[in-house]
Amino acid sequence: MDATLARDWMRAAATAIAADTDRLTRLDAAIGDGDHGVNLHRGFTAVVAALEKSPPETVSEVLVKAGTTLISRVGGASGPLYGSALRAAGKALPATAEVQPSDLVAALHAGLEAVRRLGGAAPGDKTLIDAYGPALDAFEKAVAGGAGLAEAAGAAASAAEAGAEATVPLQARKGRASYLGKRSIGHQDPGAASTSLIFQALAEVA
Amino acid sequence: MKKFINDPADVVAQALRGLAAAHPELRVDTEEQYIVRADAPRAGKVGLVLSLIRISDGGFVGPGMLDAACPGEVFTSPVPDQILAATKAVDGGAGVVHIVKNYTGDVMNFQLAAELAADEGISVETVLVDDDVAVEDSTWTAGRRGTGATLLVEKITGARAEEGGKLGEIAALGREVNAASGSFAYALTAGTTPAAGRPGFDLPADEIEAGVGIHGEPGRRREKLRPAKDLVHSALDAILDAKSFTGPVIVLVNGLGGTPLIELYLIYGEVAAYLGERGVSIARQLVGNYVTSLDMAGMSLTLCQATDEMIRLWDAPVRTPGLRWGA
C-alpha cells in the first residue's frame, strides 16, 4: 500500500458512509440517539477534504491525518474512537512510501488496542470491536498464509460484515445502547456496521 | 419535520449567532463554537466548563454559574479542540473544572481535552455527573447517566467558584452534590433532531418511555400512560430506593423541552404532597424547562439531599440567561 491507495481507501470509506448514512442513523435511532450516520458522514467528508488540501506522502501520514480530523470534527464517542484507531494505526506504520501487508497487520492491532483503551469494551459488548476484531483476525490469518493485500482485505471485509451481523442478538454493555438493557437485543450495532463499511472500502480499493 | 430552521446542517451555528446577539454580556466564539462570560478569564478564579448537547443549556453561562460551555452537534458531545479552546479562554491561573455528564462520548472527548490542557500547563479537575437512577447495573451498562443534577452541580459549584473557592475544593463540592443527587425521567414523545428529520422512536398514543436520558434515546422500559400522580410516585420511589434521602432536599421538576409549565406545576404539586407523605422535607425547589432533550415531551425529577452549605450556595446570586436571582 502507498499513500495514494491509502487516500483512495479513505475516499471509498467516505463514499460508502455517505451512501449508508440513513441506514446507520436508523440503526442508531433504534438503540442510541440516531446521529451515527450523520456524524460519521460529516467526519469522513472532512477527512477527504483534509487529504485533498495537502496530500500526505506516506500511508502513515494519511491515517494519522484522517484520525486527527475525525477527532476534531465528529464529537460523540465515534469521533475519539475511530479517530484514535486511525491515528494509532498510522503511528504504528513505518514512514516509508510503501508499506507491506505485514506492516498493516501491526497497524490494525495498534488501532484496535487504541479503541479498547479508550472505550474499555471487550468482544461481545455489542460495539465496533465485534466487527473490527474478526476483521483483523481474518486479515492477519490471510497475510500469514501468504495472501496479498487485496485477498487479505477481502477476507477482512467478509469477517467484518459477519461480525456486524452477529451483534444483532447481543445485549449492549457499553455506550448509549447499554441504557436500553435487554431492549438492545435484536438490533445491529451501528458502530459495528460502519466499521464493516470501512473494511469493505479497503477491499474495494486494494 | 416542522421546525423554525433554515438549514438542518447549520442549526447549531445559527442558534449560537442568535444567542450572541441576544446576550451581549456573553462572548460567543462562533468559529471554535463556545460560549464564555464576557469577563473571562478572571485572574485567580477557578473556571467552570460544561459540555452542551443543546443550545438552551448555554443559558447557564454567567456570574455565579458557568464560565464557559461548548455545544456539540445536537445530541453529540463537543470535540476536544473546542473544549480546549474554552478551557484556555476561562483559565485565570487557578485551574479549570470540567463538568461532564456521564455519557460515553462526553467522557472521551473531555478526557482527550484534559490531556491537551495538561500539556499546556492548565490544571484540570473533572466532575462526572451520574445521577440517573433508572440505570441500575453499571457492570452491564456504561454507568448511570448525567441528567438533571448537572444543573445543581453547576449552580452550587459556580457560586463557590465566584466566592474564590480553590480548584480541589470546587471539584470535591461538585462530586459531593452529584453523590447527593438522584433523578428519574419519563418521556411522552420522542424528540426530533434537525439532522435526522424524524422522531427518534415511535410511541403508541397510550404508551410512555420510563427511564429516559437527555439525548433522545429510548428509556429503560415502555409502560402504559398512567395519571401524573402515579408516575410521580413511581419516579420518587425509584430515587428514594436508590438514595434513601430524608431531607432537606432541593427539588428540580424539569421539563424535557416539549412539556408546558401547566403540567410541570401539576407535577410539582404531586411531588410536594408525596415527599410530605414519605417524610422528606423540601428545602428549595425549581420548576421549569432546564435540562432538556430538544422537543421531547417529558419530565425529569431530581432530588438533592442538601447540606446547609449547598443551600447557601444555591441561594447565592446568579446572573445568566437561563437562571437569574439575587443579582
Write the layout of secondary structure elements.
The complex is a heterodimer of chains A (206) and B (327).
Chain A: H1 3-19, H2 21-31, H3 36-53, H4 59-73, H5 78-91, H6 101-119, H7 129-144, H8 149-165, H9 190-205
Helix pairs in contact in A: 1-3, 1-4, 1-9, 2-3, 2-9, 3-4, 4-5, 5-6, 6-7, 7-8, 7-9, 8-9
Chain B: H1 11-22, E1 26-29, E2 34-37, E3 47-52, E4 68-71, H2 80-90, E5 96-101, H3 104-119, E6 124-129, H4 149-162, H5 167-179, E7 181-187, E8 207-210, E9 221-224, H6 228-243, E10 249-255, H7 261-277, E11 282-288, E12 298-305, H8 308-315, E13 318-319, E14 324-325
Parallel strand pairs in B: 3-4, 3-5, 5-6, 10-11
Antiparallel strand pairs in B: 1-2, 2-4, 7-8, 7-12, 8-9, 10-12, 13-14
Question: What does this protein structure show overall?
Answer:
The complex is a heterodimer of chains A (206) and B (327). Chain A has helices at residues 3-19, 21-31, 36-53, 59-73, 78-91, 101-119, 129-144, 149-165, 190-205. The mean pLDDT of chain A is 94. The longest helix of chain A is centred in the middle third of the chain and has 19 residues, at 101-119. Chain A has a single domain, classed as Alpha Horseshoe (Serine Threonine Protein Phosphatase 5, Tetratricopeptide repeat). The N and C termini of chain A lie close together (8 Å). Chain A has 9 helices and no strands. With 206 residues, chain A is an all-alpha fold. Chain B has helices at residues 11-22, 80-90, 104-119, 149-162, 167-179, 228-243, 261-277, 308-315; strands at residues 26-29, 34-37, 47-52, 68-71, 96-101, 124-129, 181-187, 207-210, 221-224, 249-255, 282-288, 298-305, 318-319, 324-325.
Provide key terms for this protein.
heterodimer, A: 206 residues, mainly alpha, 69% helix, B: 327 residues, Rossmann fold, 6-stranded mixed β-sheet
Strand line-up across the major sheet of chain B: 1-2-4-3-5-6
CATH architecture of the largest domain in chain B: 3-Layer(aba) Sandwich
Largest interface, Cβ cutoff 8 Å: A-B, 34 and 38 residues
**What would you call the structural class of chain B?**
alpha/beta
